[in-house]
Amino acid sequence: MFNPERIRALFDRASDSDSERWRSVRPNMDKGRCTDCGACIEACPMATIAADGAVIRIHYEGCIGCGICAVNCRIHAITMEPSPDWRH
Ligand code: SF4
Ligand code: SF4
Question: Which domains occur in the chain, in start order?
Answer without folding.
Answer: 4-82 (3.30.70.20)
